[in-house]
Write a structure and sequence with these properties.
Elements (H helix, E strand, L loop, with lengths): L28 H11 L4 E5 L2 E4 H17 L7 E5 L4 H12 L3 E5 L5 H11 L3 E5 L11 E6 L2 E2 L28 E8 L5 E7 H13 L7 E4 L7 H10 L4 E4 L2 H4 L2 H10 L4 E5 H10 L9 E5 L5 H10 L4 E5 L25 E2 L6 E5 L12 E6 L5 E3 L3 H7 E3 L9 E11 L5 E6 L19 H10 L2 H4 L15 H14 L17 H15 L6 H5 L3 H13 L9 H7 L21 E5 L4 H13 L3 E6 L4 H14 L11 E5 L11 H10 L2 E4 L10 H19 L7 E4 L8 H5 L3 E2 L17 H18 L4 E6 L1 E5 L4 E2 L4 H12 L1 E3 L5 E2 L1 E3 H12 L8 E4 L7 E2 H10 L4 E4 L1 H12 L11 H5 L1 E3 L2 E2 L9 E2 L2 H7 L11 H14 L10 E2 L2 E2 L13 E3 L6
Parallel strand pairs: 1-11, 3-4, 3-5, 5-6, 10-11, 12-13, 13-14, 22-23, 22-25, 23-24, 25-26, 26-28, 27-39, 28-34, 29-33, 31-36
Antiparallel strand pairs: 1-2, 6-7, 8-9, 9-18, 15-21, 16-17, 17-20, 19-20, 20-21, 29-30, 32-35, 36-42, 37-38, 40-41
Helix pairs in contact: 1-2, 1-3, 2-3, 5-6, 9-10, 14-15, 14-17, 19-26, 22-24, 25-28
Protein name: Nonribosomal peptide synthase
Organism: Chondromyces crocatus
InterPro entries: ACP-like_sf (IPR036736), AMP-dep_synth/lig_dom (IPR000873), FAR_NAD-bd (IPR013120), NAD(P)-bd_dom_sf (IPR036291), PP-bd_ACP (IPR009081), Thioester_reductase-like_dom (IPR010080)
Length: about 1000
Amino acid sequence: MRLGSGLGCVESLEDRDAGLEEERATATLGALFEAQAARTPDAVAVELEGQTITYRELRHRATCLADELRRLEVGPGVPVALLADRSIAEIIGIVGILVAGGVHVPLDPSEPEERLRHMVDQVEAKVLLSTSGHPMPSYFEGYHGVVDPGYLAEFSRHGIPPDDDPTTAASVFVPGHIDNPACVMFSPGAAGSPRGVAVSHRAILRLVSEARASGLGRHDRVMLASPPHHDAFLLERWGALLQGARLVVMPQETLLSATAFRDAVRAAAISVMFLSTARFHALSAQAPEAFDEVTLLVINGAPLAPPAAQAVLRRGAPKRLLNGYGPAATMLSTACSLLGSPSGPRDLPRVEPLFDRRAYVLDEDLQVAPAGIPGELYLTGDGPGLASVREPSLTARCFSPDPFSTRPGGRMYRTGDHARSLPDGTIELLGRSSSSSEPPGQERAPGRGTRGGDIDALSSSAPSHHRWKPRGIEGESELPRTRTEQRLARLWRELLGVEPVFRQDAFFTLGGDATMAARLWLRIRKEFGTTLPCESIYTSPTLEHLARRVDDEQRSPRKVPSMTGGLLTHHARLDPHIRPVPGVRPPAAMAKCIFLTGATGYLGAFLLRDLVKNTDAEIHCLIRATDAAHGLHLIEEALDEHDLWSPSYRSRIVPVPGSLSGFRLGLDAEQLDELSWKIDAIYHCGAEGDHLEPYFLQRARIVGGTQELLRLSCTSKLKPFHHVSTHSVFGPVGYFKGLSLLREGDDLDLGAPILSVGTGSQQSQWVAEKLIVAARQRGLPVSVYRPGSILGDASRGVAHPNAFVFRLLGGCIEAGCVPDLPRMRQLFVSVDQVSAAITAISRDPSGWGGVYHLVPPARKSVDLLQFFELAAEMGHPLERLPYAEWLERVTRLIEPLPAHPLLPFLPMLIEQVHDGRSRLQLWEGTPAHDDTNTRTALASSGLPCPPLELADVRTYLAQLVRSGSLPPAQPRRVLGGRSETSTSEDTAPPGRGRVATLTPA
């Protein structure tokens, strides 16, 4: 489908205007960006958490992408979907699409899959781009590419010449027409289904010109925070890029906290900001001083509330504050300056046309209503340069000929808002017309369904914390509409203790965590009688989205697994540019400088300690911190927690503030280049997954981080790479394939067919290890270490209380029963022994490139029932029950408890992912793990393979009881010659009995 009048798919509704600057009168966005990049090649175009990309670099990467898109026959009018978060990669994708001449179709990854599918189908997109943190959607059929800040992972074959001159470089820019569509924006349509609106180059350029006239210039730092559904989405991006300004990307977590937002705005020296009305209202209540250093603040989407504007003007007035009004479907804003303090609530909301735009208040006969007489508001000017995609009847209903225009073809847009003109020339908004249909792209604000008098009454009587509840999520603060939304809101209020709950609120923003998510999931299952997957709690950004998923699940229940092995295999493609220079070998001498990730994690802290003690190297630790001093403090805290810290370590540890999920690991180009020459080895201990989060939330950190580290390992000089994975990376192959032994050299593809039933952690670690395999095949010296289940520190006899089996045992002890799960082998190891083994093996160059299982010998491994028997032996009476009966008892016990350690894991125990079995049940039949490579590598070191004796487990259990992490044992009273806590197994029915001996049940 080509979006343009030539094929009749959409009706062009351009309102011609001769007032654009000469340069911009006929040029498209792509051409204008090319010109801007040539004028300011070395200026920073985009910044994200310290990472930057210049206009020169952005142009090169976008040009490379455009060239590849043209090979796929992308040109004028051809839609290209872009699934991306706010990021540098997103900007590369947008510019690349426009330079190729295509139509940008933005997709928000936080939207439900069904909604995204509808968007793609509506425009008939056959090319879809996504950023590296997001998978190819399962519903998409067509060409797919992954946009990365440094390369186009799927099909780019072009490098970036470092000395290329942007003023002379050949361009692949495809000329187009200024009245062609440039972008398709989506807004809620009937019943919430997305409705596409095609936006022309001319309409966007008009917005940019207005921003320029309002003060936006090349020296500004423009905050990038708007998602695709918001009016400011295009204005933020193109307003900055076509002026040569700097886009500063605000991370999502910063937007979720008013104080963090205020601090980030000041730290980044933001000078220009575009906000939705809802977000402005939220910030004005919690941090009205956040805008005191901003030069230009534009509020889009709906009229401001007087209390919110007054709070900001009193506490933190920006130099210029504009309230932009206008439906997204018009690409039109009107504004009133708020530099002076409003004298009263009647000062708002009013609108005044900007530049050459016109606003009419018309009666039912489309005649101008006299001043003071209510009518309906119509907008015109150059803004309405678009049409509803594949809905010509809706276009005709919302747009009509402008009877007052002196220019042929003039159109005006019916807003559906009541208004009246005032003697001073401004227009006062009175609320939403009850008879009007919802126009495409119209955003709604609190009270938009009421008249002005009602709004004023509410504004003067309602408590401020009920009127403008700070939220930090894009969208207007509307109360729940549907019955499902209302029922969910009640559950949120009961669990989180917040009041009120709005449609655009986010569960985790309101105080939710993994434990709360599990409780909410259990309540939803009972309330709605649905088997909604727990991951929906994590993947639904708002109450509104979650309600849609509940409704969808009730209409058509789906199986729990959402990730297919084929899709994960698709993600496991290593960037083709990551390969060592032919003939270059890693250094034979001991490393003088080591790069370590995960230093504040449990295993990472021990590994850092051992590397400091057993090498002379300087250890550079990648860590999420504000600066090096903060990073060192976090590292010291982590080691001190386990009695590992020594002040002498300070001279050997160099914190490197950054992020595994960030572009260039969160480092700027100069830092990364210096690091690539300095370090001699990489230890990646930061790929530990989270069993509770779904795959896509972990992909950027685990998969993307691993790929960036592999890139670093072969940049400047070749460095040995030591990757810490997990023994569970294959998934439950024992259950599905009947394997009795997993060898260190077995192909990872053994686990590919069953990846869909794995946890997000196992899935992401499998993909990361596949990247490791690809790197090894290209000649990188990559070693993989797969530890078993770490229970604690054997040297000190201190257990790791967060270990899953200890959480499970705690719930079992409180319930007085255990699940009958035979043949569930447990590969228990201690953290100190695993760390020592990794350190020893990695220091011997002869072992580089191997795979090492850091597990106990098969004869010393125990199964889960034996583990439970150790607890019973210590005085805990535990009845063995069939799984379903045990699960019902445990769930009934811990569900009401607000913070039980096992509660977050209940979905893993309850959700049936295959043949009526939960994820835990599928680990029956866990095979033994061969450790030949490990034993061979450790033979000369004097270290044994990581052993864990039963005595160590008993020590851990006793320590957990002493610390209060496990309930104390009950006194063993002898009744009639028998212990009260023991029962003969011979008299117990099958699948039931007391666990009281060390004999397997």
